[in-house]
Amino acid sequence: MSAEALTLARDAASLGVQVGDKAPALLLLLDELARWNRAYNLTAITTRAAGITHHLLDSLAVGPYLQGTRIVDVGTGAGFPGLPLALVYPQRQFTLIDSVAKKIRFVLHATRVLELRNVTALQGRVESLQVEIPFDTVLARAFAPLPKLLTAVRALCGPATEVLAMKGRWPQQELDALPEGWRVLRSHELEIPHLQGERWLLVLGPTPA
């Protein structure tokens, strides 16, 4: 592997995630994102170093906290955190949802280039999605404040579903306004290599009936 791939693998390992021989594929994802970004303006992050930190490592940081096999990434944007996680956890099935057509087109392109068979990409509003079987884990990074997020994903959740909300600063005001029927199960302060500032993962779930 290249020195860049080895460094990525080492930094991911510090987060408790073993990427093994997937590091070059993760970097290829960044290559494709940079190429598309020049034409379609998919992300404001344009430097290679920032892409590794904010897109790859920030996404992989939630890997140890996934539960079950059916994962949904709501408001995935250009596929983060869903695509890096799908690469590293091929035994899990990932559904990536976003309302912006060009972003879902990139997700579909990336799944073809990376030969990901465990990703389903859907364009649409999360609130309008109906599922017969609840997801095991709902992922949300920069989707919406917690009250709006939990209301939007309610139809995707069952009694055992866990919602993993990725946040910067500790969102006390959002927590004070949690909608009825939800509770905080756990919280984790994440230390992303090379990323300045706070990073929190809040794990929420439905209140038992």
Q: H/E series, N to C?
A: HHHEHEHEEHEHEE
Mean model confidence by pLDDT: 96
The parts where pLDDT drops under 50 for at least 5 residues are none
- Quickly count the helices: 7
- Domain count: the total is 1
Question: How does CATH name the architecture?
Answer: 3-Layer(aba) Sandwich
* CATH class term: Alpha Beta
Q: Based on CA inertia axes, which overall geometry fits?
A: globular
CATH topology: Rossmann fold
CATH superfamily: Vaccinia Virus protein VP39
The neighbouring-strand order within the major sheet is 3-2-1-4-5-7-6
Helix content: 25-40%
Describe the main β-sheet briefly: 7 strands, mixed
Please state roughly what percent of the residues sit in beta strands, choosing from under 5%, 5-15%, 15-25%, 25-35%, 35-45% or over 45%: 15-25%
Overview of the molecule:
The chain has 209 residues and is an alpha/beta fold. The protein has a single domain, classed as Rossmann fold, CATH 3.40.50.150. Helices cover 36% and strands 23% of the residues. The protein has 7 helices and 7 strands, in the order αααβαβαββαβαββ. The chain has helices spanning 3-14, 23-40, 48-60, 82-88, 101-113, 146-153, 172-176, and strands at 70-74, 93-98, 119-123, 135-141, 157-167, 182-189, 200-206. A 7-stranded mixed β-sheet has the order 3-2-1-4-5-7-6, sandwiched between helices. β1 (70-74), α4 (82-88) and β2 form a beta-alpha-beta unit. The chain is globular, with a radius of gyration of 16 Å.
